[in-house]
Structures are given as C-alpha cells and as structure tokens.
Amino acid sequence: MFLATLSLLAEAAEQAPVACVIDDAHWLDDASAAALLFTARRLGPERVAMLFAARDGDVRRFEAEDLPELRVGGLELDAAEALLREHAGADVSGDVTARLLEQTQGNPLALVELPGALSAGQLSGSDPLPPQLPLTAEVQRVFLDRSRRLSEAGQTLMLVAAADDSVLLTVIRAALAVLGTDPGPALEEAEDSGLLRISGPNLELRHPLVRSAVYQGASSGARKRVHAALAEAMVGVDPDRRAWHLAASVDEPNEGVVAELDAAAARAQARGGYEAASAALERAAELSAESEVRARRLFGAANNAWLSGQPVQARTLAEQGRQHASDKLLQADLDRLRGRMEFIAGSVRAGIRVWDQAARSVAATDPVRACEIAMIATAGSTFIAREAQTDLTPDEVLPAHPGDSLREQCFTGLLVGFHHLLRDELDQAAASLRAGLAAGRSLTETDLLTNMGIAAFHLADDDAFRSAFTRLLAQSRDSGAIGLVLFALPRLALADLSAGQLSTATANATEALQLARSTGQQPLTVMPLAELALHAAIRGEHSYADLLADLDRTMSAGQTGILGELVHDTRRWAQGWHDLLAGQPAPAVHQLEQMTTPPLIRLAAYERLDGAVRAGRPDLAQDWLTDLERFADAVDSPRSHAVVCYGRALLAPSAAAEEHYRAALTHHKAARRPLEAARTHLAYGEFLRRARRRVDAREQLRVALTIFEDVGAASLAERARTELRASGETARRRDDSTVTKLTAQERQVARHVAQGLSTRDVAAQLFLSPRTIDFHLRNVFAKTGISSRTELARLNLN
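Structure (tokenized):
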C-alpha cells in the first residue's frame, strides 16, 4: 500500500503537477494515514504537493509532528463581511457580521453555511438571531438538516453516496436499484440541493462534512442495508471493496462475510499490502464466532502488522489473540510473536519471559516448535545482562530423537551454541554455532536468517554475517515487508563497517533512518542514528555532534527494546573514536570501558587497545587482550588472530613488537578488514619511524594512507600523512574521488542500477518513486562524469 500510493501519485505527476489535498485527515483510518504520510515523506523531486487538513480537538487525532505545520486562524472582519455578503446574496448588517464572527471564531465554513440557515430578516438585523447558532462543531448539522429536506429517495441516495468510497456513479446507481430506489429523480433532486455534484463518471459530495453528517445521522440499520446494497453492486467490480462493505453490513458473526475478508487479506498479502491484510484479518476476527478461529485470524493480523513495520500494532493484536486462544500450539505461536515485539520495541526482560513460557508450554507436545522458540530466547539473551537471560536449557526442549532435516539441524545447532555462549563456553559455542550456520546455508526462513546473522556476529564471521542479512534484505525488499527491511538494514550496515566499507555502511544506515522516519517508527531510528554518528566520528566529520544530539532526543522518547543497549554501546564506541582522534585517550577509555555487548566490544578492540595504551593503562589493555586471546583460540579466525597480534605488539617491549606487527599483517591478508589492516600498518609505521627506520616506516605508512583515503577515514589519513612527513616523505593530498562525492542515497541508487535493475525495479526496492530514482541517477552521472548505466558497473561504489 505504501509503495502503491507513492507510485500512483508519482505516475500522475508525470502528466502534470499534482496537488493532493487530504481534508479532515483526522478521520483517516490508520492504514491510509500511514500510507499517505509515508508518501509525503518520500516524495523527493516529484511534482506533487500534499496538504493535510486536520481539526484540533476531534475524537481522532492526526499525528504528523515531523511535517511542516500551519495553524489556520479565523478570518478578519473585512474578509468575513465579504464572505457573508457573497453567500447571502445581499448586505449583512455590521452588528450581525460582528456577532457571527465572534460566534464562529472566524471559521470560513461556518460563515459560508450560516446564510442558508438564517432568514433575510436575521441577516439584515431586523429580526433577532436565534439563541443557539449552528456553529463550529455543529456546522455539520446544517448539512444534515439540508439532506433531511430531501424526499425519501433523495435521502437514500445521500446515504449510499456517503457510505460509498468508490465515487463511481455506476456503483451508486446499482446500489440504489438493489434498494428499490429510482436513481434518476433522486440524483436530480440531490444535485439541485447543492449537496453533491456529478462530474463525468463520478459522484462527488460537496464537502467531507456532508459525508460524515449524513452517515452519522442515519440509523445503524439503514447504514447496514446500504452497505449490503453496495456489496451487491460491487460483484465483479471490486472484490476487496465488496468484502469491506459486507463487513460493514453485519455486526454479528457471519462466516460468509469472514470468507470474503480472508480472501481480501490473501490478495493484499500477495501484493505486499501487509497493512491492508492486517486490517482485513482483524475485522474477520471480530466477525468470527469461535474463539479459537478468532485467535488464529488475530495472529495473522499481528504477523502482517509486523511485516508492514507496525510493531506496536502487532503487539496489540497478538495480545488480543492470546486472550482468545486455547490451543497450546497457537498460544505458543502468538507468544513467539509477542516476545519478538517486546524484544524489539518494548521490554527485553518481558520478551524473554514470554518466550521461555511459550517454549516450555509445548516442549512435551511439539518439541520442534519448543526448540525454535527456545533458540530465539537464547539468542536474544546473548545481548543482555545475566540476570535477565533465559533459564531454559537445551535438554528441556530438544526432541528425544532429533530430526535430520537441515532446518532442524540449524535450529538445534544455534540453540546449543547460544546456550554455550551464555555459559561462557566459547569452544563448544563456536563448534555448535558453526554447525548451525552450515546446516542453514540454503535456508530462507526469517527466524533462521536473523539468528544465523546473530551467530555469525558472535563468531566475528564477516562473510556469514553479511550473507544472512543480505539474503534477509533481498527477500524483504522483494516482498515489500518494510518491517523486515528496517530490521535488516542496520545489521547490514554493521557488516559493511566490519568489512571496512564505510560508504556502503553509511548508505544502508541512511536508508534505514529515512525509511523508519517515513513510516513513523521513531524507535527504529535509534540504531541507524547511532551508526551514522559512529561513521561521522571515524571520518572526523562535524555532523557527529548533531547526530548524537538527535540520537539522545530520540532515545529519551520511549522504550527501544533490545536496541537500547546496542545503541548505547554504539554511541560509546562513537565517542571513543571521536576522543581518540581528538588526542584525548583518557575520555575515550572512559567511554569504551563502559561497553557491555561482547560482539561490539570485539569490533571496537582496536580503539579499546589503542586508547588504553595511549592513556597509560597497560593493565587494562592487557586484561582486554587476554579476553581477545581466549576468543581467538575458540573461533580460530584470521581477524581474531590479527587483533591479538596487534594488541601484543602495542604492549610488547620494542625488541619483540615488530614480530607481532608482522604476524598481524599476515593474518590481515585473509581477514579482509581493510580499516583494521590500515590501523596496523599505521601503528607499525609509527613504531619503525620512532626506531629511526624511516625508509621501512614509509612503506607501511603509504599503505595505511592509501586505505584510509579509500574508506574515507579523513582524520586517520591525516595522521598517516603527518607521520610520512616526519619520516622525510611528503604525501600529496589525494583529490576526492568523484564517487566519494555521492550522497548516501545516490550511492544506494547507483549500486542497484549497476546490478542491471530498471528504474521501476530500483524504486520498488528502495520504496521510492521512479522519478526520485531518475533524479538521483542524473546526479550520479553528473558527479562521476559517466553517461550510461553500463559504466556504473565499473565504478567502485563500496
């Protein structure tokens, strides 16, 4: 629905500029409001202007604080006088104008409608005004009174038009025929009243207040009859609208109507309209007679809400479903989803407790399901304090006779591995997690991909980490599952950073930030904000402080689930980088020492070791190195050995340091972490220069400088350049690559186009309009000097 709305307006704007006015926005349903706000935030260069008009103090509110807002006040006396004169067809007494202006507070609609509700004598001032004017919130009564002056056929027509959302005259005629009303005279009478107008094939009500006044003024029985007639008129025209009219025509369980809603939900889900599917299943649940059936439909509604990027709504629906479910397996499935929502956007402890209970409840009847839920709880526990971790053990949930399918092997390997990780049994954890990763190499299930990514993160296995979240992101983009896209992008940005692809990491984090804001998911902006602050710190950019301030404001606004501690650690890491590059090792160590998440601690190992040594804390550096040595022994990866050798070099006496630097560089050849390799070259070069081996130092410093310039680490590049000068060689400052001038979004567009995707396909992948893609692509061509899509494939866009 989000992308469809954006694409529809963008395509219309190709023919001519489009002004999209959404009046009475406070009456929008949640799904429509979300789609329209998403579109407003993603328009870019489209020739589209969107204006939302919402009323203060209504029963429903329209929440869009991030959009520019203009509060409209009342008319001044001169304007009010002119408006009254125009609609009264005669002069209006000055005293009457002043009284009406006071009573209406200058509301233009009230001033337009009042001349039709008052007599000529009242307007001229010769007759007294009524004691109670139909003003402000009661203005719609004017429309209702005007509608009730129509004949019975005219009133029926008005109610059909108010209940219909197709605006098709053919549909309204067909519905009137079902109700036994002759549409000809009724249409003529209603049009003459000024309450509606006919424009080609469409019938349009004069004002949204006409719709609400007529619809709310009708009895519930009359509304249901009209919706039933509209449903019949929709046969063969629009099955989805038909389903919703049927749903509005009944207020008691009805299996026929529920079947139509189920079908509408299936169609919506197939086209990636998860919010529409969720709404249809929620209504179907309301009309389901049996509690268990209702619970299943609420489970489906909750799943679709999660996929559409609405975790709060998903949690609410799952909790409602849990109240109706009696089947143990369904209860467990609902709890699995409830736990995920708590974990992501609520209380982490509550999420773990829900998962624990769910796994234990089905361990005897469905051990495979219990194993799956226990694995998720155990994986989540690896990021939190010991007192909040799961107390489940694999023995409680593993089947007596484990299955031999790759899927079961993957779940089992991950469960056992995460359990060993919680017990600090690194050797056993590494073996089991690797077995799980190997079994899941060809699997595509969301829970497996996300947790294989977590396993790889703990193992510092960059390739497996990137593979899991790249696959998850690709699947999510293809299906339009914004919720999963928002989950995958920040994790992939972290994988990019590990691989030294700083520009790509920034592009993914930027997209995650913009997409979270576009869908109104403020809690999901915190991780990309923290990552962007980290990237800015590494580059030495001034935007660092603004990003941290933005992050702090967002973090103070509410719960952020598991992201909370990850974000705090990423923020500490960013501050550590910033302070180190500013030559302040002691404050850097203060920040880096507070990090608590083991995989992030290991990613920040170079900063932590450098900071501790520079701050005169070799004891602390040695403690951290000891942990790194133990981890390297367990996982036995080139990167883990490289950082250990680097730490040993920093702490070793001068006579032994060179051996460790060389060993670190040997491991780096296989580790494929260029930024860390450059750090080693830099430190080794500095060591050699201090030893007065200037020629040898230059070789190391040149390599470091080249890599720092390649990845955009400007502050470190300047440090390497300074060291080179001290060694007797002057390094020219490299001209910025044309590619480095690309914005994060331009780089993202260029990467997708370079893969051979069409403009329309790239737009669908990035939840943007084709025109926005073309706009960014033109900028890419201008900045890089290329002239064709084919040439993009030859650019290094990482």
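Residues 497 and 505 are 6 Å apart (CA to CA). The longest strand covers residues 18-22.
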